[in-house]
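Help needed: design a sequence for this.
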């Protein structure tokens, strides 16, 4: 883990697997977010909450690419939310590091090696979407590969558009039969009309 100390002022919060030092002291430059400081012994312990029940990914969000780190991502991130949400919210390495650091601060529990494994998986398999996808011009293959919808959902979107005309709003897209509105809302920042 690479930690740069910028100041002697540190703020420490307890995480399930160790201590995470935040604030003006260190800058975390790796996804291995567990660090300690000279003030660690002074930090008040944080009461641990009962573990959250993992949510089972639903619909197209259940589709994560296979690869080293997938199982760790599902196990660690799935305790609080659907880990497959990353499909529609790709980021670069710095963005994923910031997200992992935030999640560790909120209670995600994993070893340094596991956080690094998750980061490597996300960087490789969930890059940022370069541009918004025009839902009135995209092919089913583009909708599937760039937004993470299933092949059937992507085909249904194109078929509905061809039958009913161009989409003007997200609400129009939500009229596609058997389409889960949450799946659309999750991807709304990556769509244009």
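Sure. Designed sequence:
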């Amino acid at each position: 883990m690479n930690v740069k100390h910028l100041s002697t002022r540190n703020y420490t919060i307890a995480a399930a697997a160790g201590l995470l030092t935040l604030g003006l002291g260190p800058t975390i430059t790796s996804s291995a977010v567990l660090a300690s400081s000279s003030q660690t012994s002074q930090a008040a312990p944080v009461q641990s909450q009962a573990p959250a029940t993992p949510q089972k990914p639903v619909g197209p969000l259940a589709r994560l690419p296979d690869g080293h780190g997938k199982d760790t991502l599902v196990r660690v991130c799935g305790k609080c939310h659907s880990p497959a949400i990353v499909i529609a919210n790709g980021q670069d390495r710095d963005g994923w590091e910031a997200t992992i650091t935030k999640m560790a601060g909120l209670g995600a529990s994993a070893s340094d090696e596991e956080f690094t494994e998750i980061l490597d998986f996300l960087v490789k398999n969930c890059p940022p979407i370069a541009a918004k996808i025009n839902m009135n011009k995209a092919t089913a293959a583009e909708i599937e590969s760039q937004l993470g919808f299933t092949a059937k959902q992507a085909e249904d979107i194109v078929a509905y558009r061809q039958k009913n005309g161009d989409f003007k709003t997200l609400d129009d897209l939500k009229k596609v039969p058997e389409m889960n509105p949450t799946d659309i809302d999750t991807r709304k920042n990556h769509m244009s009309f």
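The chain has three domains: 3-42, 59-125, 133-192.
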